[in-house]
Design goal:
Strand content: 25-35%
Number of strands: 12
Number of helices: 8
Order of helices and strands: HEEEHEEHEHEEHHEHEHEE
Largest sheet: 6 strands, mixed
Structural class: alpha/beta
Distance between the termini: 15 Å
Shape: globular
Strand order of the largest sheet: 6-9-10-3-11-12
Length: about 250
């Protein structure tokens, strides 16, 4: 990429729509591992109701940045701001409690439990110390309905019987049930058919309309251009710039 193109990318990243403040922002993030600088002074802002793609070659620093945002890694230097306040997530549970969820390519679901049990794992409604299965299934059905997939997945289905696309929907439902305000999707379309990609795209649009930030990590640039409103580029651990997708 030429210096002229880099300058264009950086100058076009400044204008958030409607004057909104970022819901999530990372400033001057640096992260080192033995023998490598994974991130070098990276700053990016993410705004409510946007699908924001982060792209770059393998080793560009995308996964490291996402793991810092989601609490799996801590920074060496730099700061993370969430809803205008500086935060420091030392564990993914802390990030989830604040409203930041990440969906990895390898799903974090228990195959021999139901959809409802997975969505509310560790948070099951109970009565006198016994799980209230009827209420559990009702709450799960409400979440599935909220994201528009209640006709596709039943709360009582075993997770082991679901397709990859359906597993992904369960992960998204789980994040929504945790009142997520930011959902990071790591290569969400890698194993999906074109029909399943369309389903995911529709779901992402529903989440965007609710004001969520969707951070979309993908090597499929055609889908990035179809889904994302903004695209940020990382290269060799450095921030190259952010553009509005039409640019």
């Amino acid at each position: 990429m030429t210096e002229e193109n880099k300058s264009t990318m950086k100058s076009s990243s400044a204008d958030p729509k409607n004057g909104a403040q970022p819901l999530l922002e990372v400033r001057n993030i640096t992260k080192r591992f033995p023998g490598v600088v994974a991130l070098d002074d990276v700053s990016v802002a993410f705004y409510p109701g946007e699908v924001h793609a982060v792209v770059g070659e393998n080793g560009a620093g995308k996964s490291t940045l996402m793991k810092i945002i989601a609490g799996a890694y801590t920074t060496d230097t730099g700061r993370v701001f969430f809803q205008g306040e500086e935060v420091e997530f030392n564990h993914p549970i802390e990030a989830q409690q604040k409203g930041v969820s990440i969906i990895y390519q390898e799903f974090n679901l228990l195959p021999e439990r139901t959809v409802a049990q997975n969505i509310f794992l560790g948070r099951e409604p109970s009565r006198l110390g016994v799980v209230n299965t009827r209420e559990l299934n009702k709450q799960a059905r409400d979440v599935l309905k909220d994201i528009g997939v209640e006709q596709i997945i039943s709360p009582t289905e075993m997770v082991s019987s679901l397709s990859v696309a359906e597993l992904q929907l369960v992960e998204i439902a789980k994040a929504v049930s945790l009142d997520a305000k930011v959902i990071i999707m790591d290569e969400p379309t890698a194993s999906l058919t074109s029909t399943e990609v369309d389903l995911l795209r529709n779901l992402i649009n529903r989440l965007k309309e609710k004001g969520l930030v969707i951070i979309f990590i993908s090597h499929r640039l055609v889908e990035v251009f179809q889904v994302a409103e903004k695209i940020s580029v990382l290269k060799d651990g450095k921030y190259v710039g952010t553009v509005n997708t039409p640019e």
